[in-house]
Design a protein that fits this description.
The chain has 18 helices and 3 strands. It is mainly alpha-helical. Helix 4 packs antiparallel against helix 5 and helix 11 packs antiparallel against helix 12. The longest helix has 22 residues.
């Protein structure tokens, strides 16, 4: 039996952050997936997570765990596939560390992902974003910070991890305001921003002061603002903006919604999906095609450029009621049968006999 704890520890502390240079967010997501898996397996096997063995995490256990998170934890297919992806990544590492578990690993790697519905992306319009930017008070320290954060997040289409990881040295103002982003997959890109955004960044840098951390945006304690902190700030300003912009009431605005809003604005302005992919830092244009399905502009242009087929003109005239009754095939006898009510205990032959007796 092979102890599981040493291998998962090496995978999370060395394989992911050092060998594969995974982001801190990815490492935390994988660690949470394994925590759920090991707690479920330990409960089912009546042991503790630290006493689990590699041979106990087989394909049957993984399938039972996936079923558990869907039924008991009410996770959707996307979350279920994310947990399975973390498990498969670990098993590919085990494949080379423990060759004797090759058959077990192959069975787990053969577990298919569950198909999910591809829905339209939820995005925010430029007018709605302007309503949110008008909420922070420019006469306070945190009002200036919040306006600069929200503005650069929307204009540059940043992921929340890219925003909170932005450093002071990544912002330049000559020859024009721009930010340097180290994005997903260690891909670096430089994005020019609006002059208004540059002015908001200058205002924040003027009052930011010295800090012990190099990150651009700070929290109330002087440290780097976290993902949760930015989500809280955005939620508070969105709730306040709903009073002046009712369209926000029907939308769930998250940090990624701002990124989607930037992508839709870029697509409607440039009409070039490749430029949108470069702006967002996507490694493949196929990832960016999701915005084409949500943008009605291109579809309206395609419909307008087409010539509809010519149809024969005519006008509908309702048929005459009398002619309709005569052409329906109904006779007076059929009409009498439908309208005349007779006692249910007297059949047609019995009634004829009674009629004949009365005549005699």
């Amino acid at each position: 039996m092979t102890p599981l704890a040493p291998h998962i520890t090496t995978f999370l502390r060395e394989r992911l952050p050092i060998d594969r240079r995974a982001s801190e967010h990815t490492c935390d997501t994988y660690a949470h997936a394994f925590r759920l898996l090991f707690q479920y397996a330990a409960t089912r096997l009546a042991t503790t997570p630290s006493q689990l063995h590699l041979e106990q995490i087989d394909a049957a256990m993984v399938l039972a765990f996936l079923q558990h998170i869907e039924t008991e934890r009410k996770n959707g297919p996307v979350t279920r596939n994310g947990r399975l992806a973390a498990i498969k990544s670990f098993m590919r590492y085990i494949e080379y560390q423990v060759p004797s578990a090759l058959n077990q690993v192959r069975q787990i790697l053969a577990i298919p992902l569950k198909r999910t519905d591809t829905k339209l992306v939820a995005y925010i319009t430029l007018d709605e974003m302007q309503s949110i930017l008008n909420i922070p008070d420019p006469h306070t320290r945190f009002g200036i910070r919040d306006r600069a954060m929200l503005d650069v997040c929307f204009v540059a289409g940043l992921r929340v991890s890219e925003l909170v990881g932005l450093k002071v040295e990544d912002v330049t103002f000559a020859p024009q305001p721009s930010v340097r982003i180290l994005g997903k997959g260690r891909r670096e890109r430089v994005l020019p921003v609006w002059k208004r955004t540059g002015a908001n960044l200058r205002a924040w840098l003027a009052i930011r002061g010295e800090a012990a951390v190099p990150e651009l945006f700070l929290n109330a304690r002087g440290g780097a603002i976290s993902r949760t902190g930015f989500e809280y700030v955005l939620k508070q300003h969105v709730e306040s903006a709903k009073q002046s912009r009712p369209s926000l009431c029907s939308k769930h605005v998250s940090p990624h919604t701002l990124r989607h809003g930037c992508a839709m604005l870029m697509l409607q302005t440039t009409h070039d999906i490749r430029k949108v992919a470069l702006w967002l830092g996507h490694s493949s244009v196929q990832t960016t095609e999701v915005y084409l399905r949500a943008d009605p502009t291109a579809k309206l242009e395609a419909v307008s450029s087409l010539t509809p087929p010519a149809l024969r003109r005519g006008r509908f005239s309702a048929p005459d009621q009398l002619v309709a009754m005569l052409t329906s095939g109904k006779t007076d006898k059929d009409y009498a049968k439908k309208t005349t009510s007779k006692p249910p205990w007297i059949g047609p032959r019995r009634r004829l006999t009674v009629h004949n007796q009365e005549l005699r």
